[in-house]
# Entry
Amino acid sequence: MPAKKKTINLETVYSKLLEHDKRFDQHDKQFDNMTKHIFALEGTLRKEIETVAKRVAQIGENLEKMTGDLETLTQEYRMITVALKRLEQRLGDVPGEDRGPVRSEIDALNKRVSGLEQRVGLIESR
# Structure
């Protein structure tokens, strides 16, 4: 038995086109929803990236400040160390009874060095 031929007329074509239109309308709605979600995600990502960029800038500023503070303290430490060595050399040249005023200067400088060492330790621990 031969297969029955389908008859095609304008009504069947029109009904098929209507079915396809409905499907395309559904796809359009799905794409619209996806587009909204993508744009919302993009907005969220932009905000997060901006927040991270601000935080990185703050970290950079803090690092520059701490580096500057550390350099200043290092310079002060070196100057005090040089002064201490100079005083110790002078103390070695001074006879025993005249060492009192020089000794007090050395003690004062030692206190300053101790203070600087504590400040450097605090900065390094940050």
